[in-house]
Amino acid sequence: xxxxxxxQREASVRAKQExxxxxxxxxxEAQEAERRAAEDVARGREEARRxxxxxxxxxxxxxxxxxxxxARQRRTADEALFVDAIAQRREREREIRAMEERA
Length: 103
Known about the structure:
Layout: H1 6-102
């Protein structure tokens, strides 16, 4: 069997090593791209979650403000009814006094 000359063997070994380094580099780049993609997905999910939470907080605040406004309107209506009732009572008292004075 003919032996491969040493220079050829060395060149072949260097070529294999270079191929292995290139493959390792490509694999590392692919893994880095995968990691970045996974981070982007996680970031997107976190952002969507944050937006949902913000929307819930805003809705809760709006609900609270709406309820406060309804309560204020009820108080205003109650106060108006109270003032009207007092005015009606005073009017009746005046009518009664007027009738008593005529009698």
